[in-house]
Amino acid sequence: MSRKRKRRPDEWKRNVAKKDRHRPKGFPSMPTCVHGQNSIFKCKELSMQDVRKIHQHYYKDANLQSKKNFILQHVTVSSVQRN
């Protein structure tokens, strides 16, 4: 008689793919900005050091919930201004 196979969920394709999705894809590159100089977005003011720091803080924990919390901490929500 043979023994029943033990499950190893960390080796399943589905879970391996999930882990790979939440890992950093590589070293960050400088984002390209298509907004003009008078835009409310300040993409041009970011230095490469700032981009690298954001990347490190975002990917320091592999947990998806902590990544969502990181985004929520750094985003401000404002209501739509209508005439």
Distance between the termini: 77 Å
Please provide the count of β strands. Answer: 0
Determine the structural class based on helices, strands and strand pairing. mainly alpha
* Percentage of residues assigned to helices: 25-40%
Please report the number of helical segments. 3
Mean pLDDT: 86
* Apparent shape: elongated
Please write the string of helix (H) and strand (E) elements.
HHH
Outline:
Helices cover 37% and strands 0% of the residues. It has a domain at 41-74. It is built from 3 helices and no strands.
Question: What labels would you give this structure?
Answer:
mainly alpha
Explain how this protein is built.
It is a single chain. The chain is mainly alpha-helical and 83 residues long. It has a domain of 34 residues. Helix content is 37%, strand content 0%. The longest helix has 12 residues. The chain is elongated. The N and C termini lie far apart (77 Å). The model has no long low-confidence stretch (mean pLDDT 86).
Could you outline the blueprint of secondary structure elements for this entry?
Layout: H1 13-21, H2 48-59, H3 64-73
Biased composition (Basic and acidic residues): 8-18
Region (Disordered): 1-31
